[in-house]
Amino acid sequence: MSKKIKINEYLPFYYGGASGDFNQIHIDDNIAKKSGFKGIILQGLCTMGIISNYFLEDKNPKVIKKIKVRFSKPVYPNDELRIEVNQNKFTVLNQFDDEVISKGEITFNE
Amino acid sequence: MDLSLVGKKYPIFIYEVGSEKIIEYAKATLSKNPYSLNRIFVETTRYKKLIAPPTFVATYAFKALRYVFDDKDLGMYVPNVMHAEQTFEFGEIVKSGDVISTKVELKNGFTKENKNGNKIDFLVVISESKNQRKQIVCNGRWVLVEKYNV
């Protein structure tokens, strides 16, 4: 299973509004650079939400029982992600083949 | 940050779930799911209300996590804090109109050095969220990392 997911350049702002996560590294380029990044980064929980919705498709949300991720590398606006799935385990990679989520696990209700 | 505060519990945060917020969150996480986005569709289900995507917990519990980020005694410098790991275990679904109570606790904390000899603090926070019927809707385990000498 491998679908490409483009990260819109405005997504950190949009997700900030939806979730309340306005940590400056997600909205202020200068602060993000001072914190060691190339620029603003996407909220980890936004990436996790996108992945969760990818698995959920159009099914009832109750089917997902548990999800676990490790945020390995930052996701930047305009990144293109893909998900590699092996049974209930998954990784998420960017366009450079860097793992941005590793040791992902998802469990479904029977 | 002051990891001696491990064990600290914070006040319960109460959040009322609204339809528009479910839709906004679903769109922000690129959902196409009709249970979260389509009011006409959900009328045909037994729920009759929009259902939040599972990770909507990031909205109602994140606001409870603010107590941790804003805790001056803990002393996090938020721009240097990274989210390292996250686990969510779900119970009852969350629907529009539900009232979710979330409590958080500093569960564990430790310090490591990276290969450059810089100190990194790890903080494990757990959250427990229940609906208005006292049913668990989500238990979360949040691993936060604060880097120094960035």
Can you describe this structure?
The complex is a heterodimer of chains A (110) and B (150). By secondary structure, chain A is of the alpha+beta class. Chain A is built from 3 helices and 5 strands; from the N terminus they run βαααββββ. Chain A has helices at residues 11-19, 29-34, 44-56; strands at residues 4-6, 64-71, 80-86, 89-93, 99-108. Chain A has a 5-stranded antiparallel sheet with strand order 1-3-4-5-2, with helices on one face. Chain B has helices spanning 19-28, 34-37, 39-43, 57-69, and strands spanning 13-16, 81-90, 99-113, 119-130, 136-147. The relative contact order of chain B is 0.24. Classes of the chains: A alpha+beta (110), B alpha+beta (150). The A-B interface holds A 5, 11, 14-15, 17-21, 23-25, 31-32, 34-36, 43-46, 48-50, 52-53, 56-62, 64-71 and B 21, 24-36, 51-55, 58-59, 62-63, 66, 78-90, 93, 147, 150.
Helices and strands in order, then pairings?
The complex is a heterodimer of chains A (about 110) and B (about 150).
Chain A: E1 4-6, H1 11-19, H2 29-34, H3 44-56, E2 64-71, E3 80-86, E4 89-93, E5 99-108
Antiparallel strand pairs in A: 1-3, 2-5, 3-4, 4-5
Chain B: E1 13-16, H1 19-28, H2 34-37, H3 39-43, H4 57-69, E2 81-90, E3 99-113, E4 119-130, E5 136-147
Antiparallel strand pairs in B: 1-3, 2-5, 3-4, 4-5
